[in-house]
Amino acid sequence: MSDLLHDSFYRFVRVESPPELAQKLEEVCSSAGLWGIILVASEGINGMLCGSQGGLQTVRDALEEDSRFSGLMYKRTSSSVQVFYRLRVRLKAEIVPLGIAGVDATRFRGTDVSPLEWRELLGREDVIVIDNRNSFEYTLGHFKGAINPGVNNFRDFAQFIDQNLPQWEDKTIAMYCTGGIRCEKTGAWLASRGIEILQLEGGILHYFQQMEDAEQDYDGTCFVFDARQELDTQCKVARTPRPPEFEGTVSQFLWRGMEPERDKVLSGDKDSGNIGNVVNDISSGLARKVLSRSRQRSG
């Protein structure tokens, strides 16, 4: 198998018939020989696909023909092996859950900041930069000077923001995440309350792709939700020793579960085996359930 490509993409847009769209996307992706996951909801789509350049182009062409998804931003990276173990197109209530009912990201949003503009604001004293990801993702890598919200789930992020907003009244709030979707959902929630935020356009991955010297502003690696697990500032697969802060945490469970499959990717092993199983565990929350049961037994 030759080297493959990985596309991630999303858009918040009103979808009148999610089942119809999901069926179409599954048919297109299947015929194109792609594996990965696409979430479809009434608020839009959120996808990660891996396969050949031609297969991915087929999906891009199909989405471009639909006016709702014309001009999508794709974050493209490479992989030596297939990083998913099957294709899943799933219907969901939301394409990314903030944990607050009624957030309309098709109507409200924060203000996008380009990578160049982001670099300029990183050093400003009047700007608060917040990492809109889970704590273990921050531990692996983050923009220099960014605040770690200390949450283990995106659903807890809103509480962190509400608790700290009063002390940021005289500051400009800037947020970033892996590919932009979590910031866009948070930005919609805050914009609906009349609170303006800046959000890094396309997230960390877009920044890496646009800024050749991204390591000047970013320490460590970026966690990605597939078998590669970590990408460096050149969007190459990387490996970070398990940080001591992970001991006894959910992150430790996820990390240990992913290590064997990540080793396959790093070594160029063409046998993908069950590479996607742990990825599925992460996205479904199974890892947290297993760890909780383990603690209950030991207690």
Give a quick precis of the structure.
The chain is an alpha/beta fold and 299 residues long. 36% of the residues lie in helices and 20% in strands.
**Looking at CATH, which topology of the largest domain would you report?**
Oxidized Rhodanese, domain 1
Mean pLDDT: 84
Could you estimate the helical fraction of the residues in percent? 25-40%
CATH top level of the largest domain? Alpha Beta
How many H/I helices? 10
N-end to C-end Cα span: 47 Å
Strand order, sheet with most strands: 4-1-3-2-5
What would your notes on this structure say?
The termini are far apart. This protein has ten helices and 13 strands. The strands form four sheets. A five-stranded mixed β-sheet has the order 4-1-3-2-5. A four-stranded parallel β-sheet has the order 6-10-9-7. By secondary structure, it is α/β, with parallel strands linked by helices. It has helices spanning 18-31, 53-64, 115-122, 135-140, 157-164, 181-191, 203-210, 250-267, 275-284, 286-298, and strands at residues 4-12, 35-41, 44-51, 75-79, 87-91, 111-113, 127-131, 141-143, 172-176, 198-200, 218-220, 222-223, 230-231. A hairpin with a 6-residue loop joins strand 12 and strand 13 (230-231). Helix 8 (250-267) runs antiparallel to helix 9. It has three domains: 4-91, Alpha-Beta Plaits (2-Layer Sandwich); 112-207, Oxidized Rhodanese, domain 1 (3-Layer(aba) Sandwich), CATH 3.40.250; 241-298, no CATH class.
